[in-house]
Amino acid sequence: MDAGFHPHPLTLFWKWITFTCDLCGKEDKGTPYLCHLCDFWIHGRCSIYPQRVKITHHEHILHLTHSSLKFHQSNSRFCQICVEKLDTHFGLYYCSRCDYVAHLDCGMTLIDSAAAYEVKNIEVGVDGTEIATEIKHFSHEHDLKLTDEVLNDQKCNGCARPLLVPFYSCSQCAFFLHKSCANLPKTMRNRLILDPLILIPTKPGEIFQCAACKRGCNGFSYHWEELDLNLDVQCTLTLASDILNHKGHEHRLILSTTGYEQTCTSCNSESLFMFRCTICEFALDVKCATLPYTTRYKQHEHPFTLCYTVEDDSNEYYCDICEEERDPKHWFYYCKNCTYPAHPNCILGKYTNIWFGDTYKFDCHPHKLTFIEETKDSPKCHDCGDPCKEFILQCVQCDFYIHDKCVRSKEEWF
Questions:
Q1: Same fold, 11-48 and 359-410
Q2: Which residues neighbour 28 within 8 Å (Cβ) at sequence distance 6 or greater?
Q3: How far is it, in rounded angstroms, from Cα 353 to Cα 285?
């Protein structure tokens, strides 16, 4: 592995050992990366720290360094963000123009998303922090304003998950973006994919399959150019670290890199991407690792919580939505108020990471077309003649239907 902040190649040390990471300074157990030339050890997760960051609290670019010889010495060193002591023998972010230093994690929490959006308006909170209340994001043509208004049945255009406040909203069209999604970095790296992953918005009406969880999605994706693969936002962030602490298991989980398909304990599916426990025989695929902890179902008055254990001793396990049997060893959603259990797929729906209802203009039809999930009568596609069963573009003004794939094969997007 080549890490830009280190002059020599780093090699994965295939042995479980106790070591101190020379970048973050933390002692840990695991399989580190090693530089044989200078005895430099780091966590796999630390290899993804960006070499340069722009934070909101400083006007210049900060550079990642792990050598105290690369910056000016002074009598004392304090992080300029948290004002706590900083050990200069390990990694830090540094501005040589101002002799400004910051902890690695502090720098990451205040990354300025100038590459992703332009700030239009800033307000100062009660605690003195600056809040970008209006932005121009690279993925959308109009300005977005920060709001805490609760909206039902709307999803974030970035992660395609239900909206949680606060989020950015477009006043001219139905475009919404979680604050966290607006701050996503333009490039990401992880332990499995050493090439940079590029953040891209999905084209109108287009759906991609995430290479990690296999779900369909029409939100943002991180694109792996070499293999022409896409990962959704949730999976990319989950795979950014090789260690996962999940409420569904008592021990921490390590990202497995065996190269063959393994079976997930919580759903019995097979996947190449798997987090495994080193203490017991527990494995968790990325699809289950990214399930929301809480969710709602249609008009049900109470929220449902992801449950990892059997809720009763009746020895009868059913889903109250589909009324089919459940495997008591598999995870499920549960409403404690109503003793209402449900399969994850039943409660989250067939298309967890897809939203419908947006309208687009294409050259193949004079009116705007609405992206819909399916119709009861499955009308024929006006292009290929096959029945339109799902992922359809419909004209609400006239009797016109076309598959989304048919539009993509022949149209330029607007």
A1: yes
A2: 18, 19, 20, 21, 43
A3: 17
Could you tell me the residue ranges of all domains in the chain? 11-48, 52-109, 113-182, 187-238, 243-289, 291-352, 359-410
Instruction: Output the DSSP codes for 298-348.
Output: TT-SS-EEEE-S-S-SSS--B-TTT--B--TTS-EEEETTTTEEE-HHHHH
Q: With respect to CATH, is domain 359-410 assigned 3.30.60?
A: yes
With respect to CATH, is domain 243-289 assigned 3.40.50? no
Tell me the per-residue pLDDT of 290-317, one tens digit each, with 9 for 90 and over: 998 888 888 888 889 999 987 666 778 9
Residues 6+ apart with CB under 8 A from 176: 151, 154, 155, 156, 157, 163, 167, 168, 169, 170
Which helix (DSSP H) or strand (DSSP E) does residue 182 occupy? helix 179-182
Strand partners, 81: none
Give the tokens for residue 404. 């989304």
**Segment among 54-63, 96-105, 241-250 with least mean pLDDT:** 54-63
CATH topology of domain 11-48: Wheat Germ Agglutinin (Isolectin 2); domain 1 (3.30.60)
According to the model, what pLDDT value does residue 114 have?
44
* Structural domain 291-352, CATH architecture: 2-Layer Sandwich (3.30)
Q: Considering only CA atoms, which of 121, 174, 125 is closest in space to residue 145?
A: 121
Which whole number is the average pLDDT over 218-223? 93
pTM as predicted:
0.66
Q: Burial code of 185-216, b = ≥16 C-beta within 10 A, e = fewer?
A: bbebbbbebeeebebebbebbbbbebbbbebb
By C-alpha distance, which of 255, 266, 369 is closest to 309?
266
What's the sign of the alpha-carbon dihedral 215, 216, 221, 223? Answer: positive
Contact call for residues 215 and 353 (beta carbons, < 8 A): yes
Q: Between 315 and 110, where is the model more confident?
A: 315
Return phi, psi of residue 181, to 5°. Answer: -75, -35
**Other beta carbons less than 10 A from residue 278's beta carbon:** 12
Please determine, for residue 286, whether its predicted confidence score (pLDDT) is greater than 80. Answer: yes
Confidence bin at 413 (pLDDT 50/70/90): very low
